[in-house]
Design goal:
By secondary structure, this protein is α+β, with helices and mostly antiparallel strands. Helices cover about 20% and strands about 35% of the residues. A 4-stranded mixed beta sheet has the order 4-3-6-5. Strands 1-2 form a two-stranded antiparallel sheet. Bound molecules: zinc ion (ZN).
Length: about 70
């Protein structure tokens, strides 16, 4: 089991029972310093949006660069 920490609320989640943690794009990591974000924090964010570039691959991007 892989444990991943949300870089926003610092909760540690296992990706299954405790909640989902999404990977952020390099741009998000560079600009905001966030590598991983949980579903709750993502839903509460106005700046970040979940994209689906490939089947079963989800990446968090900064809203506005691609969605304006
Ligand atoms: Zn979080």
């Amino acid at each position: 089991m892989t444990l991943t920490r949300c870089d926003v609320c610092c909760d540690v989640l296992d990706g299954i029972d405790d909640g989902i943690v999404y990977d952020c794009s390099k741009e998000v990591h560079y600009k905001l310093g966030i590598e991983h974000i949980c579903e709750d924090c993502l839903n509460g964010s106005d700046d970040l949006v979940l994209t689906n570039p490939a089947p079963y691959a989800y990446v968090v991007e900064i809203k506005g660069d691609n969605y304006e």
